[in-house]
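forwarding from the other thread:

> can someone predict this with iron/sulfur cluster?

sure thing
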Amino acid sequence: MANNSKIEWTRHTWTPVVGCDPISPACAFCYAALMAARLEAMGQEKYAGLATRQGNRGKWTGKVTLWEPELLAPLKVRKPAAWFLTSMGDVGHEAVPFSFLDRLFAVMTLCQQHTFYVLTKRPERLAGYLTDFQAGIRVCRATIPFATTEVLRFGNPAGTDGWWPLPNVLIGCTTEDQTRADERRPATASIAADGWRTFVSYEPALGPVDWAGWEFLSWLISGGESGQHARPSHPDWHRTARDWCAANGVPYLFKQWGEWHDETDRAPHERSRRVADKVINASGEILGGGDGHTGYVELDWRERGGAWMARGGKKAAGRLLDGVEHNGKPEVR
Ligand code: SF4
């Protein structure tokens, strides 16, 4: 059963791997953990024991479930579509054995009509898997049981010229700040050097990133954080990503502002509140803050590069960056 997605850049989510544990500052308010706890409370066996609910947050227990009933979901959809693997965990998690990755990549092999976006915060593990010279052989073998079932409609390209690395699959990593960008670039670069198309999700953007050295990318997405505990992102972080993409021929998608929007250039009487919820500069330094009614702001916040960020919710914030919608996407192959 395909899950339709509200995520701007995909049509379906594919969740044969559910459950995770935090690895990064971006995980602090993991939406998937809260959702998993809610779904278990609604009686969904798939999410049993994965997370607990603590107020308005979810906390992973560390259990990871490989959910077989979802494994063949893309094979059952004939219409070409974009699929995100996986929105309820991390396919690069250590608890996902290579034998299961073989089967996931086998399904992607047999679904040439679809484009898959495999996103992880653990690219070094996927690099270890994908750059192993035997990976293609294992995946080729793993297609055999699926290729003999009634779900196979589009032939089996495994073993034919140019089938591996899979042209319909992009491997992505999340990088929310410079530290994570530096940590995850070598592994992502090694995947790209092996012939895979790669992308970055710079969402939630939590700090500035210098993108020099990422020229191998096929796509870059940036966005601010959403949800009750969302942290604001400085507009310059997204502008830097946008401008770097333009200079390097990398498609750029500005996904969302998230919970916070920029009111820096509004006259004081046009701002949604008299006191900013948060003023941050391009280094992430806090120059002011409050609850929207009372608060403080450093007098020289403008001179110090501050952005006056107001909390108005994701819908109100929209997805225009300097008045422009950025919808760059990689070519479908
Ligand atoms: S890697 Fe993803 S799913 Fe796992 S804790 Fe972090 S944000 Fe949540």
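The longest helix spans residues 178-193. thats all i got for now
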